[in-house]
UniProtKB/TrEMBL annotation:
UniProt KW keywords: Membrane, Transmembrane, Transmembrane helix, Transport
Protein name as annotated: Amino acid permease
Organism domain of life: Bacteria
Cellular localization per UniProt: Membrane
Annotated PANTHER family: CATIONIC AMINO ACID TRANSPORTER 4, INNER MEMBRANE TRANSPORTER YGJI-RELATED
Predominant location: membrane
Positions of transmembrane segments: 32-54, 60-80, 92-113, 156-174, 186-205, 217-236, 257-281, 301-324, 354-372, 378-397, 409-428, 434-453
């Protein structure tokens, strides 16, 4: 059997029309942009900015966000062309099936399972912390044993609030993508108002002296900061997992991906500039840097709003991440590489019901029981790997003249895809060795799963299936 057998773009699009597994097309460009902003603005801006400034970049955090943003803009253009060309669920996994073949597609899919699954768990834990902080302000406290992940030395055994929010989000997602998108839009508007409020209030308290020295850790600190805050950008790729549920995907997918990324990049640069201008960077190593900065200038009433916005923000990130995970499982299962239960769609709701609840249980286990201290770095390396593969995929598409002339096309090929590959590769090299080792172990486990199950159950083994083989 050929490890690099492919599905043509036409084949992938034809499979979408199969009646027993069809998803409902309900999303437009605005819905997609809101999904993207919902996935991007959250843990990164409300949590990671402080640590990145205090430990890595200092006031040059602005440059870290620009560096990460550039890597993402280049990669986003590549994603936009693929999403327009192959409007099928599965994101980078599906694109790789059409360009590099089954084995590479499986590796990408397995990599994205790590990204979405562990990111969902980490975000649920972050949500739990903010939610408990909000309740504490009203004098409400949970028993300590159920407030955080398993750590007997600290007296905690399970994070019940994290598990509850995962179940609530899953219940919402199983009601249909349009209802989920509406709630997401409301929460995105709340957190955008909160971010703009921080900018409007904070700009008057900026002391330019706090920006000196601008680059206390040198450019290597800026680069490490960029690799750290890269977690703040992951999410725009989750927009591409919605491809099968989009009206006019050739037009709307590129708009949703690029618009959401540009809005978030501008807001990140403004917030990081104001944050380091208000508070000396050495004091920003806290879990809630934005609220901390407002307390620092005695704007406590705004800080309360910021906490509420953070909860809304983190909720939307969790919603989009779990959504992306279910659609990824759906796409891989439809190709036979995972059990068929993941691609069964409820006839009434037109959502993958069993898949959603299995995802819920898996995410809940990690969020409730496992302390995920270095998770952001592990999620980052998986995302950067996916971005690099998609960038190379555009070069492959153009060389083999597979891409149709209609829809969105990346400008300045081959330069933009090469820049995307180099920027992402550079950021990946800034991550610690432990992240690389953990990532390698995960990929080895994935190869065992593929050769033990996926290779034998692949739909391309069926008689009569069209196969394209690498010569």
């Amino acid at each position: 059997m050929d490890l690099f057998r492919k599905k043509s773009i036409q084949q992938l699009i034809q499979e979408v029309g199969q009646k027993d597994i069809k998803l409902k097309k309900e999303l437009g460009a605005f819905d997609l942009s809101m999904l993207g902003i919902g996935a991007i603005i959250g843990t990164g801006i409300f949590v990671l900015t402080g640590v990145a400034a205090a430990e890595h970049a200092g006031p040059a955090l602005i440059l870290s966000f620009i560096l990460s943003g550039l890597a993402c803009v280049f990669a986003a253009l590549c994603y936009a062309e693929f999403a327009s060309t192959v409007p099928v669920s599965g994101s980078a996994y599906t694109y790789s099936y059409a360009t590099f073949g089954e084995l590479v597609a499986w590796i990408l899919g397995w990599d994205l399972i790590l990204e979405y699954g562990l990111a969902s768990s980490a975000v649920a834990s972050g949500w739990s912390g903010y939610f408990q902080g909000l309740l504490a302000g009203f004098g409400i406290h949970f028993p300590k044993a159920i407030t955080s992940a398993y750590n007997p030395a600290n007296g905690t055994y399970i994070d019940v609030p994290a598990i509850l929010i995962v179940f609530i989000i899953t219940m919402l997602l199983t009601q249909g993508v349009k209802k989920s998108a509406r709630l997401n839009t409301i929460m995105v508007i709340i957190k955008l108002v909160v971010v703009v409020l921080f900018i409007a209030v904070g700009v008057w308290y900026v002391k330019p002296g706090n920006w000196t020295p601008f680059m206390p850790f040198g450019f290597s600190g800026v680069a490490t900061g960029a690799a750290t805050v890269f977690f703040a950008y992951i999410g725009f790729d989750a927009v591409s997992t919605a491809a099968e549920e989009v009206k006019n995907p050739q037009k709307n997918m590129p708009i949703g991906i690029i618009a959401s990324l540009l809005v978030c990049t501008v807001l990140y640069i403004l917030v990081s500039g104001i944050l380091t201008g208000i508070v000396p960077y050495q004091q920003l190593g806290v879990k809630n840097p934005v609220a901390f900065a407002l307390n620092y200038i005695h704007q406590d009433w705004v800080a309360g709003f910021i906490s509420l916005g953070a909860i809304a923000g983190i909720t939307t990130v969790l919603l989009v991440m779990i959504y992306g995970q279910t659609r990824l499982f759906y796409a891989i299962s439809r190709d036979g590489l995972l059990p068929k239960v993941f691609s069964k769609v409820d006839k009434k709701k037109q959502t993958p019901m069993a898949n959603s609840w299995i995802t819920c249980i898996l995410v809940s286990i990690f969020a409730g029981l496992v302390p995920l201290g270095r998770l952001a770095e592990l999620v980052n390396i998986g995302t950067l790997f996916a971005f690099m593969t998609v960038s190379v995929g555009i070069l492959y598409l153009r060389k083999n003249k597979q891409a149709p002339k209609t829809g969105f096309r990346v400008p300045f090929v081959p330069y933009i895809p090469i820049l995307a590959f180099l920027f992402c590769g550079y950021l990946a090299l800034q991550l610690p060795a432990l992240s690389w080792i953990s990532f390698a172990v995960w990929l080895v486990i994935g190869l065992f799963v593929y050769f033990g199950y996926g290779r034998r159950h692949s739909t391309l083994n069926s008689k009569g299936e069209r196969m394209e083989r690498v010569s």
